[in-house]
Amino acid sequence: MATYLDFEQNICQIQEEIIAAEVRYDRHAVEILKEELDKEVEKTYANLSPYQELQLARHQDRPYALDYINLLLDKKYEIHGDRHFRDDLSIICYIGTIGEERVMVIGEQKGRGTKNKLKRNFGMPHPEGYRKALRAAKMAEKFKIPLLMLIDTPGAYPGLGAEERNQSEAIARNLMELSNLNTITVSVVIGEGGSGGALAIGVADRLAMMRYSVFSVISPEGCSAILWNDPTKVEAATKALKITSADLKDLDLIDDIVDEPLIGAHRDKEGAVKALKEYFLGKVAELKVLSDEERLEKRYNRLVSIGQYSE
Length: 311
Description:
Blueprint: H1 9-23, H2 27-45, H3 50-57, H4 65-72, E1 74-79, E2 91-98, E3 101-108, H5 113-119, H6 127-142, E4 147-153, H7 160-164, H8 167-179, E5 185-194, H9 195-199, E6 206-210, E7 214-216, H10 220-227, H11 234-241, H12 245-250, E8 256-258, H13 269-288, H14 292-304
Parallel strand pairs: 3-4, 4-5, 5-6, 5-7, 6-8
Antiparallel strand pairs: 1-2, 2-3
Helix pairs in contact: 1-2, 6-8, 10-11
């Protein structure tokens, strides 16, 4: 069963009416209702608030990294383990082909259902997850394979074991190594990009966000708790943090917005996969024109230009 948010209830009602009309074989009614649905979708999604976009980014029906990998990759083979401690299942690494392009894909996987969420640790990687990601990235560098990284995490796991195994060092090392990685790299926020957990696989030649994704240094819930000690301030915190794709594009903190379907990836998974595929292959073709030196210099200049300050 599809899950509808509060502001999607009119869309839900029209879609149910379309199903009923199809059962009755009333083609005329179906055509009218589909036109009505298109208008309602445009009206609903054209003026979303930041908090509504946050809800879409976290929607339980939104495609996760493994959904994209299964639909994008052919001849895929999964890479396991960091060769130091264990295999962290909240980070997944696959080598395969997208179209004619041989690629490496690294993603953060949240999991669906209680059993799977626990297995994937709710998409919150441990240090060994980031070390596995770096191992896969180094493999891509060795064989000159373009690298696609899919960000979708509430943040790195803050537990005692993760801190004992040096979570902050693992994230910092990824930032350093990925900034110097000598292969084409593209990183895309597909859902929720939280704090250092997102940054650890977010250093790339091109950093993009899906239309209804968010990227922030802290969750709105954490922000409202720290600033106001009031959980009812989540909407205000979401607006103040400027975490939507449009906000981050305006601030020049990301390069591009991937144009997922207006109705959202949670309603049109195939359309979202197509948009991501076209974006990635387009950026790979664009970056292939550059020499290694030119690409690395452009990456460096992009990274050091982030942020603003005044004296």
